[in-house]
Each structure stands twice: as structure tokens, then as C-alpha cells.
Design goal:
heterotrimer, A mainly alpha, B mainly alpha, C alpha/beta, A: mainly alpha, ABC transporter involved in vitamin B12 uptake, BtuC, 2 strands, globular, B: mainly alpha, 16 helices, 69% helix, disordered N terminus, ABC transporter ATP-binding protein (chain C), ATP-binding (chain C), ABC_AA/LPS_Transport (chain C)
């Protein structure tokens, strides 16, 4: 029972971080119908920026994460404005290939600069843990998870309350109509991509604090984002949060009973099952037609 | 393939010359037998080329031929119907692992294992095809990706059968070897045969009733169904054919490698290279995948040899540039350029940008 | 309509809901073979939903669709096509990247009387295009066509199926006077050959001159079904569909 409780707590904490990894991915997919294969690379870049700031300036990762966010926001904005916007109307796999190229560029750029070695940001508190009734709660993960949940909720409320947020949502629903209303779609798209990248950067900084990272992790985070976005439903921010927590739990529980990487097989099995049975996600309804009715 | 009997690869005219617009692809201006003659000459030329190569180069060209076959396989579903399988490597890995297991554990000869592996891949495609092909666009892409990743994890986790993450070796020497190793020169020919066979299949398909049905599905699935096309059956057939070919290539690759690992046989990059090659060359055409595979693989080899440290980085940049400049593929680009007598390099950007 | 022959189209209690919205509710009627039925109604009345339900592009929530006695309820579109039902789409759906005759040839290759050889299919295609009065070259691609020819291509694709029941979803929208007349002529000729035709149209003149029966849909419900002139003089129709302009004209 205690082991189950422990793995549940661990799964929820991990799930919160995974939700933060995926929330931007889901946003971009929902608003632009673009699947960003470089999303995991953004996460890893965020980790490296935080790590670098920590190395140079001794910044605490919870401060350095703002650097990651700023850097990735600018990167994301420019990538969308200068590259992805050029092929937004092309067939779906064109954007997949474009972002795949971007993923190669970023991960190999990181390997060239930093080598492929695993790194971590070490803090005095991250590895300490609180004991709550026999269950260990690692402080770093708790902080990261709380921050992740807070950011996801903040994003939801910003999307609902601000002019820009509404403009993003409107563009996602009907780009043509949004443009007629005077919304500058090019800017809005770039802004959306920038926000998504910034969230990925934040997630990267958090992940670097609670564990190790290397450029090779990029594809793993992209795949996690897929699974979570699909579980939660596209463009549905609460869905991403729920999907992240669910994936964290499933992985953590399955890890108790299944050997090694079979846990991943469970995640992918879940992905395919949900897609086939409920392509709109467990919570949401899709922005884009997911399958034929006939 | 009823149409296959009409086709005469030796170059004799097989049918009356159709009016120009009958042909959907780059062969527009040519008589129907001409492409087959060119194909036959190309095959002979590749055989002749072999005598001029060092052993290292033989392997390089074998890889190009392998990717031509893989790109053509992807083309059968992705190119014709627009259903972009991002898990195509699942069939490659399944074909490879079937061969390895059948040879190492069941002691089958390679020439038995090869067709069986392709059939296993095709059967797997038939099973997953029905539920997955109801999904559209990105959903289909992701579901197939999930299948491939899941399959890899399963292969890793049944070590008794597959050797797990440590890989599995096909016995190629000694008394346990069911078939002796073929050697680089023979593999060159085998890959050539597979590449030529998949190309012929795509060529036949593109002129066939099924080919028209698949292209109609790509343009508008509702209208295709209204025209009487059983879209489910057409799509599943295309996926099964495509998986059969991919499994075949995976089988040859596994035997060539002798020892195979799940990380390589289910590498998502192989899928992405297939997609890239077809898109760059011209999807849904016969010639496109050949152009795309040759160009991208040659470029990749060149970069690997001359810029070892940064070659993947440069490849990434080239992919980005190619996708932006040539989203419709080289074949269509050249055709349009020929027709309009100008190089409309930035027209694509004008078409697809926001 | 108690004819001894099997009706060409029999609709029983057909309904379709989208979430909370009832796009079509409880539609029932019978159409005898060789008749032309005009279907009118304001936007959102459920006209296209009706066609989609018959051809299997949508599944009915409840109800039944019988064509020449065969139950086609919820059957997939190609099964419906194989049963001799053809349709056009309100928003034309050509297969881009193929020539006009290839577009039409696809219907001939598949459908109830499939022609497996490409040459035979192309011959059928040329004939179908001729019948519709297609003016462009048969080798033109859909992007090169005028609005009228795009409509004719859509019609030719349906004709190449050699249907017994033909459903036309606003094929005359965007056509001009002479073009409409030619299209109406064709509809009459097809009926003389024994085809049963359902014409969904906005053009009052077209519906009046061509239909044996007119069915008026309003907010997903059958408002009235009857002879064209009887329907048009019905007050409910004038109020629901034709609006002020017609009322005033009538008063004058």
C-alpha cells in the first residue's frame, strides 16, 4: 500500500512536469494545426540555457528559468515568423518535416556546443525531500510540479481573459474570419509559437533541476507531448494538464509492475487506443476534423 | 494487378499511345513503353556501375538503393492517398526482426525467411489498418508513430525471442548458418532488385484502377466515396502493399547487417527520411522517390564524409530549406518550370505562406 | 402515391441531430420511379443533410432510407453508389491534379457498372461530359474551369455512375440563364430515360419548371409536399421561405 501511495505521489509530481512539457505543444497544434517535432528540442534548449546561466552567474534555476523562457520565446517567435509561416497552408506532412529539420538542427547544435553528455543543475534543496505520513516528497519535484500546474492554469486564464488570448483562440477556430476582424494572423501565430516555446523552456529548466538532461532526450519529450496532447484533446489546456498527470501516473504505476522500458510501450499503447477510440481526447473536442464520419 | 500483364518491360509498345493528359505523372510526353525502356537501361547501368566501385562504395550505393525501395514503399500509401504514415519503420523493423528470428531461432533459410517476413509485415498492416485508417491527417501520422514506438518497446522487452536491447545475430558462418552470408556484391544486386521491383509496382499502380482510386481519395475522400470507391478497402490495400515492400527491405537490411538492434531497426529517423525523400522528389509519382532518395542519401553521405562533426546539423538546415522551397517535390517543380519556361522558386512560398 | 411498383426512394422517419441541433427531424415521404422531386427551403433547412443521409455521407440518428426497395440506411457511400445512387456536391469536389475526363472516368471505373479498363472508362467519361454540355477541353484540369464547367464536371461525375436515382445539390447555382435552360433540358431528358431525380435548388424558376413534386423543408422538418403550384401558393411556404418580396409581388 505504501509503495502504491509512493508511486502515486511520484507519478503526480512527474505528471505535473510532463503537463508543462506538453501544454505548449498542444496549444500550437490546436491553434495552428502544426505538429512541432522540435518541441522536445525546445525543452532541452531550455534546460541548457538554465544550466548555462547557473554555471556563469550562479543563478538559482528558479530565477534562471526566466532566462530560458525569454530566450525560447524569441526563438519560437522568429521560427514561426520566418519559417513555419511560410508553409502553414501546405499539406500536413510539410510542417512535420520542417519541424523535423529544426529538431535535427537544434539537437545537433547542442551536441556540437555541449557534447552529448548528461548534465544536471545541482541545488542544495532539490534533492531533499519532505516526509508526509511515510511518503517521500522530493522538494525540487514538488516545487516544479506546483509551478507547472500554476503556469498551465495561468495560461488558461490568460487565454480567456486577455485580448491577445482571445485573438489566439479566434485565429485557431477560423483563421479567415479572424483576419477579417483585423487580427494579424502572422503575428498571432508567431506569438502562439513563442508562448509555446517559452513554456517548453520553462519545463526544460524545471526538468534540469530535478533530474539529468542531454540532447538525446529531445525526442522523448516530443513523444510525451504527443501522448499527452492526444489524451487531453487538442488545444485544450486543462486537457493537457489532465493528460500529463494521467501519463505520469500510468508510467509510475506501470513502472512498479513492468520491467524497464515496457512502461513506454504502455504509454504508446494508450496513445493508439485513445486515438482510435476517442480521437477528440478524453476531455475535449477537436478543432480539426479528426476522422471521417462515413 | 491486372494491369501487370500488359506491361512489357523490354520496351515493346504495350498499348496504344494515350493522349497526353492520360498520364498523371512526369511521363506525360512519352509513349507508354518508353519509361519501361528507360527503367531497364537504368537497371543495367546500375549493374555496370558495380564493377567500377570499391567495396566501400558498393555499400554506399546499396544504401541508396535501399532508400529508393523504402521511399517507393512509403509512396504507395503516403504519396498516392496523402495518408502520411509516420510509423512506416514499424514494418521495416518487423520485417528485419522476423527474418532474424526465423533464421536464428527456427533455422529457416534466408530465401524462406525473406518472403515470410514481408508477409508478416503485411499481415500486421492489415490488422492495424482498419482502425488507424479511419483517422485523418495528423491523427493518422501520430497513431502510426505510436505503433512504431510501441512495437520497438515490445521488441526490447521480449529478449528471449528478440535478444532485447542487446540485439540479435543471424548465424551466417559455421554449421548453424542456414544460409551463408551473401557478401556485399550480392546484397548490391538484391537491393537493386528490390528497388526495381518496388518502382515497377508503383509504376503499375499509378496507371491502374486502384491508383486512380487512391489519388481520388487524396484529393477528396467524400467525393471519392460518392464515386463508388470503397475507400476503406483501397486505403487498407495500399497500406498492406506498402508494408509488404517495407518489410521486404527490412528483411534484406537485417541479413546484410547480421546483428540488428531495436534502436536501429525501429529508428524514427528512417521513417522521416522516407517521407522526406518522397516529398522532396514528388509524392505520388514514379520518378520522385528515386530522385529524392538518391539526392538526399548522396548528400547525406557527402556531408558525413566531409563534415563528419556537423553533418546532421547541415542536413537539418537543408531539410528546412528544401521543404520551404520545394514543398511540391522536384518532379512537379521541373514539370512546371518546363511548361512555363521559368524557374518559379518562390511561387511555392507565395502559395503556402500565411 | 399508391403505385404498384416499388418506390424509387422511400424515406421513413429520417432524423439527424448534431449535438443538440436537429438538422433533420422525422422526414417521411415516397418518390415513385421516373419522378422529379424538387427540394427547397431556406439555408439551414436541412437540404444538404437530407442528401448526405441518403448517400451515406452522414449516418441517420433514426429512420430508414430505402432505394428501389433496398434498405440503404447507414450504408457507406460506395455501397449506396453501387446500389445506383449518384449525387453532386453543393461545393464542387473535383479531384484536382487530374484532367476533367480522368475525374469522370473514376466514377466509371467504380460504381454499379465498373469498367475496369481505363480506355473504356475514359470513353464513358467523354460521353458523360458531352451530355452535360461541358465546354472546356476534356483534358483541362479542374483549376482551369469556369464556374459553369466546374458544375458540369460535377454533374458528369454523377452521370458516369449510370445511376437510377440522381441527387443534385444545387447544380445550377452560379449558372446564367441559357446555361440553366440547358441544364433543365438535361434533367428532363434523364427523366425520360427512366432516372428518378431529386433536385435541391435555390432557384425558384428551375424548381417550378422541372419538378413533378416539390418538398419544402423548414428548420429540419417537412413543411409541405405537393404539386409545384399548389406548394407555392401555400401560405405557410410563402411565410417561411419566400418571404416579403414574394408576398408583395403576389399582392400586386
Amino acid at each position: 500500500m505504501n509503495a502504491f501511495l509512493q508511486s502515486t505521489v511520484y507519478g503526480l509530481l512527474q505528471g505535473g512536469l510532463l503537463a508543462l512539457v506538453a501544454v505548449g505543444f498542444s496549444l500550437v497544434w490546436g491553434v495552428m494545426n502544426v505538429i512541432n517535432l522540435a518541441h522536445g528540442a525546445f525543452v532541452v534548449v531550455g534546460a541548457y540555457v538554465a544550466w548555462q546561466l547557473n554555471e556563469w552567474l550562479g543563478l538559482d534555476p528558479f530565477i534562471a528559468m526566466f532566462g530560458s523562457m525569454a530566450f525560447l520565446f524569441v526563438t519560437g517567435y522568429l521560427v514561426q515568423r520566418l519559417l513555419v509561416n511560410l508553409v502553414v497552408n501546405a499539406p500536413v506532412f510539410i510542417t512535420l518535416l520542417l519541424t523535423f529539420g529544426l529538431d535535427l538542427l537544434l539537437t545537433n547544435g547542442l551536441i556540437m556546443i555541449y557534447s552529448g553528455n548528461y548534465r544536471a543543475i545541482n541545488t542544495s534543496y532539490a534533492l531533499k525531500s519532505l516526509a508526509l505520513g511515510g511518503v517521500r516528497v522530493p522538494v525540487g519535484r514538488l516545487l516544479g510540479c506546483l509551478l507547472a500546474v500554476a503556469c498551465s492554469l495561468l495560461l488558461v486564464s490568460l487565454m480567456k481573459r486577455t485580448r491577445t488570448g482571445l485573438a489566439i483562440a479566434a485565429t485557431g477556430m477560423d483563421r479567415g474570419a479572424a483576419r477579417l476582424m483585423g487580427i494579424r494572423a502572422r503575428h498571432i501565430y508567431a506569438l502562439t509559437f513563442g508562448i509555446a516555446a517559452a513554456l517548453a523552456g520553462l519545463a526544460g529548466a524545471m526538468l534540469a533541476t530535478v533530474g539529468t538532461f542531454s540532447p538525446a532526450d529531445a525526442s522523448k519529450y516530443t513523444l510525451f507531448s504527443f501522448v499527452i496532447a492526444v489524451l487531453g484533446g487538442l488545444g485544450n489546456m486543462y486537457g493537457a494538464l489532465a493528460g500529463g498527470l494521467l501519463l505520469g501516473l500510468v508510467e509510475s504505476w506501470a513502472g512498479q509492475y513492468l520491467s524497464g522500458t515496457l512502461v513506454n510501450a504502455v504509454a504508446f499503447g494508450l496513445l493508439v487506443l485513445v486515438l482510435v477510440a476517442r480521437p477528440a481526447g478524453l476531455l475535449g473536442r477537436p478543432f480539426y476534423e479528426s476522422r471521417l464520419e462515413v | 494487378m491486372a494491369a501487370e500483364s500488359r506491361v512489357d518491360v523490354t520496351g515493346k509498345p504495350a498499348a496504344a499511345p494515350p493522349t497526353p493528359a492520360d498520364e498523371p505523372d512526369g511521363w506525360r510526353r512519352l509513349r507508354p513503353a518508353t519509361p519501361w525502356a528507360i527503367g531497364a537501361i537504368a537497371v543495367l547501368a546500375v549493374i555496370a556501375l558495380q564493377t567500377q566501385l570499391y567495396s566501400g562504395q558498393v555499400r554506399t550505393v546499396s544504401t541508396v538503393l535501399m532508400f529508393i525501395a523504402l521511399a517507393q514503399s512509403w509512396n504507395i500509401l503516403g504519396g498516392f492517398t496523402g495518408y502520411a504514415s509516420f510509423g512506416q519503420v514499424a514494418f521495416f523493423g518487423l520485417g528485419g526482426y522476423s527474418t532474424a528470428v526465423l533464421m536464428a531461432k527456427a533455422g529457416l533459410s534466408y530465401w524462406m525467411a525473406l518472403p515470410l517476413s514481408a508477409v508478416i509485415a503485411a499481415a500486421f498492416a492489415a490488422v492495424i489498418g482498419l482502425p488507424l485508417l479511419r483517422l485523418r491527417g495528423h491523427y493518422f501520422a501520430i497513431a502510426t508513430l505510436g505503433v512504431a514506438e510501441g512495437l520497438r518497446e515490445i521488441v526490447i522487452n521480449v529478449p528471449r525471442l528478440t535478444g532485447g536491447g542487446a540485439g540479435i545475430s543471424i548465424p551466417v558462418v559455421g554449421k548453424h548458418a542456414s544460409t551463408a552470408y551473401l557478401g556485399n556484391d550480392t546484397f548490391y544486386i538484391v537491393f537493386l532488385v528490390v528497388a526495381a521491383a518496388t518502382t515497377v509496382l508503383v509504376g503499375v499502380l499509378s496507371r491502374s484502377r486502384l491508383g486512380y482510386g487512391l489519388r481520388a481519395i487524396r484529393q477528396d475522400e467524400a467525393a471519392a466515396a460518392a464515386a463508388g470507391i470503397d475507400t476503406t478497402r483501397a486505403k487498407v490495400t495500399a497500406l498492406v502493399l506498402s508494408a509488404f515492400c517495407t518489410g521486404l527491405v527490412g528483411s534484406v537490411y537485417a541479413f546484410q547487417q547480421v546483428t540488428i538492434y531495436p534502436e536501429r531497426l525501429f529508428d524514427v529517423q528512417i521513417t522521416l527520411l522516407m517521407v522526406m525523400m518522397v516529398v522532396i522528389g514528388g509524392s505520388g509519382t514514379v520518378l520522385g522517390p528515386i530522385i529524392g532518395a538518391t539526392a538526399l542519401q548522396a548528400l547525406s553521405e557527402y556531408l558525413r564524409a566531409n563534415f563528419t562533426e556537423v553533418h546532421t546539423f547541415i542536413l537539418g538546415a537543408i531539410i528546412i530549406a528544401a521543404v520551404i522551397i520545394l514543398p511540391q517535390g522536384a518532379v512537379f517543380f521541373i514539370r512546371d518550370a518546363w511548361r512555363t519556361r521559368r524557374l518559379p522558386l518562390l511561387d511555392n512560398v507565395r502559395t503556402y505562406r500565411l | 402515391m399508391n403505385t404498384p411498383t416499388t418506390p424509387a426512394l422511400q424515406i421513413r422517419n429520417l432524423s439527424r441531430r448534431f449535438g443538440g441541433l436537429a438538422a433533420l427531424s422525422d422526414l417521411s415521404f415516397t418518390l415513385a420511379p421516373g419522378q422529379i422531386l424538387g427540394v427547397i427551403g431556406p439555408n439551414g433547412a436541412g437540404k444538404s443533410t437530407f442528401i448526405n443521409l441518403v448517400t451515406g455521407h452522414l449516418r441517420p440518428s433514426t429512420g430508414q432510407v430505402l432505394v428501389h426497395g433496398a434498405d440503404l440506411t447507414g450504408k457507406r457511400p460506395w455501397r449506396v453508389a453501387a446500389a445506383g445512387v449518384a449525387r453532386t456536391f453543393q461545393i464542387v469536389k473535383p479531384f484536382r491534379g487530374m484532367t476533367a475526363r480522368e475525374n469522370v472516368a473514376i466514377s466509371a471505373m467504380y460504381g454499379p457498372t465498373p469498367r475496369r479498363s481505363k480506355r473504356a472508362a475514359l470513353a464513358v467519361a467523354d460521353e458523360a461530359l458531352e451530355r452535360t454540355g461541358f465546354t472546356a477541353a476534356h483534358t483541362a484540369t479542374p483549376n482551369e474551369l469556369s464556374v459553369a464547367d466546374a458544375r458540369r464536371l460535377e454533374l458528369a461525375k454523377a452521370l458516369a455512375l449510370r445511376p437510377r436515382l440522381l441527387l443534385l445539390d444545387e447544380v445550377m447555382a452560379g449558372l446564367r440563364g441559357k446555361e440553366i435552360d440547358r441544364c433543365l433540358e438535361l434533367v428532363h431528358r434523364l427523366r425520360e430515360e427512366g432516372m428518378t431525380i431529386v433536385v435541391v435548388e435555390h432557384l425558384m424558376k428551375a424548381i417550378l419548371s422541372v419538378s413533378d413534386q416539390v418538398l419544402v423543408l423548414h428548420q429540419g422538418r417537412l413543411l409541405i409536399l405537393g404539386e409545384p403550384h399548389a406548394v407555392l401558393s401555400d401560405d405557410r411556404v410563402i411565410e417561411a421561405y419566400l418571404g416579403q418580396r414574394y408576398v408583395q409581388r403576389k399582392a400586386r
